[in-house]
Amino acid sequence: MGNPVFANSDVFGAKSNGTTLNGAPLNGSPTGQAPQYGQYGAGYPATDASTLGTMYDAPSATTAQTGRLTYDDVIIKTGGLLALLVAVGAVTWVMFPDMWWAGAIVGLVLGLVNAFRRNPSPVLIVGYTIAQGVFLGGISAMYESQFNGIVAQAVLATVCTFAACLMLFRSGRVRVTPRFTRWLLFAMVGYLIFSLVNVVLMFANVGGGQFGPLRSGGWGIIVGLIAVGLASASLIVDFDAIQRGVRNGVPAKFAWSAAFGLMVTLIWLYLEFLRLLAIFRN
Question: Which helix (H) or strand (E) holds 154?
């Protein structure tokens, strides 16, 4: 997986076999599969004819009634987290933009904690969103002071890219295969190493440029376009992981994990657009 939030999940991962984290079945049967005819005599309660008739006439239970993950759950929680992110970012922009570094540190710590938790924690995910709101609010104010209108451009580019990736995934023109995910994983590891080297060189005052010696000028534009491509591919992999979770009938609480995973990718995509647009402006 491209996104570590989904890659480390036993319910969203490609190896999910229809069981929960503790090995319990997702559909309620002892084996994780619907009981076959003739099994109700051993291990299943007896049911009389009138009860069977009532069950037959009753409407089918929805995924929400059975406590399973739905797309609506993911949309609502993702929308709520995005609204909180924007609100905190706006307050930070106006009142204390210089505190972006505190949000960056706290957001990094909470991001790692949430990414490797086996069960989602709404409190920690909300805390991560608040920290990232402080970070993005301060950073956005800094960019806007240098390049007028750049934040609106970055937001628009992020929204359009998200919509395009979702349309491509829904149309089936882009399919998430094991080869695709392996390629994305290797590419993201390489980009991470490249970024760390650039940061070390920047702090060591080697080379020049506002974004480090390896991300300035024409070369910086190429790297920025590659990073946007990787983030976009990661979005498509995220959509596939969420779709697999819904189809496998994972518990509804994992909507928090799905929303957190999308938040991580969207924040990364926005930052890459912000940096890329600044290089173009320079």
Answer: helix 150-171
What's the whole-number average pLDDT of the chain?
A: 82
Question: Amino acid identity of 183?
Answer: W
Cα–Cα distance between 153 and 88 in angstroms, integer? 20
Query: How much is the pTM?
Result: 0.77
Instruction: Reduce the DSSP state of residue 46 to 3 states and report it.
Output: coil
Taking only the tens place, the pLDDT of each residue in 229-255 is 999 999 999 999 999 999 999 999 999
Q: Could you tell me which residues come within 8 angstroms of residue 1 by beta carbon, excluding any fewer than 6 positions away?
A: 7, 12, 13, 14, 181, 184, 185, 237, 241
Q: What is the dihedral of CA 108, 89, 130, 210, to 10 degrees?
A: 10
Distance CA 180, CA 14 (A): 13
Write 186-192 long-range contacts (CB < 8 A, 24+).
187/230, 188/2, 188/230, 188/234, 191/226, 191/227, 191/230
Count of positions (residues) in the chain? 282
Q: Rounded CA gap, 207 and 204, in Å?
A: 9
Compute the CA torsion angle 235, 239, 241, 247 (nearest 10 deg). 180
Q: Give pLDDT tens digits for 209-228.
A: 667 777 777 888 899 999 99
Name the residue ranges covered by the structural domains of the chain: 66-281
